[in-house]
Amino acid sequence: MKFRTLLSLCAAGSLSLLTACASTEPAQDTSDYDPLEPVNRVVHGVNGAVDFMVLYPAAMWYRDIAPEPVKTSVASFVRNINEPLNSFNALLQGDPDQAAASFQRFIMNSTLGFLGFNDVASDFGIPYRREDFGQTLAHYGIGGGPYIVLPLLGPSNLRDTAGIGVDYVANPLTWGAQNSDTAEALYLGSVGLTALHYRYATINQLNELQKSSIDYYAALRSLYRQQRNQMIRNGGPSPEFAVEDESASFDFDDAVEAASQ
Amino acid sequence: MVNSKIAISTAAMIAIAAAWSGPASATGLSSNVVAEVAAETSAANVIQSMADQAMNELTDQSLADDVRRKKFVSLMDRYFAMDVVSRFVLGRYWRSISEAEIEEFSVLLQNYLALNYANQFKEFNGEQFVVGDETQKNKDTFVDSQFVRPDGPPVNIVWRMRMFDDSYKIIDVSIEGLSMGITQRDEFTSVIQQNNDDVGALTAALKAKTGL
After folding, report:
1. Rounded to an integer, what distance in angstroms lies between the CA atom of residue B135 and that of residue A17?
2. B 21-80: CB under 8 A from A
3. Considering the entire predicted model, what is its pTM?
4. Rounded CA separation A31/B189 (Å)
5. What would the pLDDT profile of A145-183 be if each residue is shown by its tens digit?
6. ipTM of the predicted structure?
7. Residue B41 — left, alpha, or beta (φ > 0 → left; ψ -120 to 50 → alpha)?
8. Residue A183 and residue A176: Cα distance in Å, rounded?
């Protein structure tokens, strides 16, 4: 319980920090700032080994054994279990409409959709959108900071790692798991299914990337940054970047100019 | 791996990038001719004719792998501004090598991309390629398109194009918001940095990979 108190204090702390340094522009990361690269590469290697031994075989088995309707239901369940957090973060980002939509999805899918295994809300025209605390921080202008490869969880950065911590504390299921065996079983089950689902969903892409790339670590790092930027913008068009590092400063205009010389 | 939700990899990027069209290619010769004529005035038409050409030339399953790769390379020659792309993916490092070395790199890059992605055209089955709207933003024209799969949601692809000598050339491809050019640049510049800023190390790695 003490650990939890500590965690919630941290969450409260980051929230007050948030308001302190709030800016109106969502933060978009332009470079792969990676001062911990040697350590990150080691963790990346260990993750790869664990993945090879545990997650990858499980995902392959799941891919070959599970019928398509089962996979669809699992994908829907994994998203539904996240909806309270999506709603919470949408609210923090000053988007009450999206917060209401996520909450509505959660209620509809948990009841009509049988614990979220059926995504009836999408059929009613309320699409899914993921909002996590990392995105909330970015919404208030906080940049990604150094790239971090987390044990088991993989690519992240300082901001998004803090976000994972806050989301963990804010998740009603993690609180429920303290007091109820049913909630604990549901929580643990959802963690397992989430891991399995995401690994399955990325099997082909990651296999191809690993096969084709010269530096798999660097390619993954770039894709993580781009994908987070995409999620922070909620799919909107990319802004023209303010230039931060030398490599990012070389844009298409420079390349065109260089080619015409 | 919860967080490594990479929506679509570079692999898928070019596979789709070189692209292909379902219904349009079935309409036959006349639509191709029309597309060729209109190509000079519309970026979307350039994408459409590239898709038609890729569909006609690359999806034949009996084609030998190296022949398919060569056809892929010549498609890139025709539709991509390869000199711009080559300099872009080298980042600031293109300045540290000679013109001849950039030429060599450009050839290696094309063959590397062809090696990784040309064979994906063998496996096409039931997917469709639909070209959408154009948007102008600063100097570039962005062409939206969708890759519609029989199983799973459609994949959004955006082509970044620029006018060179009165014709549109592709300078970047984004799949679900992930830029192929930026991903490749980040990876390549990382390889160069890991080797004491020596571009030769990247060239050597590409040679080893492509067998050139």
Report:
1. 39
2. none
3. 0.83
4. 12
5. 999 999 999 999 999 999 999 999 999 888 888 888 888
6. 0.82
7. alpha
8. 6
Residue B2 CA to residue A163 CA, distance in Å, equals 14
Say if the Cβ atoms of A223 and B6 lie within 8 Å: yes
Q: pLDDT tens, B124-173?
A: 877 889 999 999 888 899 999 998 988 778 889 999 999 998 899 999 99
To test the contact with chain A by mutation, choose from B186, B189, B195 the residue with the greatest count of A C-beta atoms within 10 A, namely B186
- Report pLDDT digits (tens) over B100-125: 999 999 999 999 999 988 888 887 87
A201 CB within 8 Å of a chain B CB: yes
Q: Encoding tokens for residue A207?
A: 């296999």
Find, in chain B, the residue whose alpha carbon is nearest to that of A30. Answer: B182
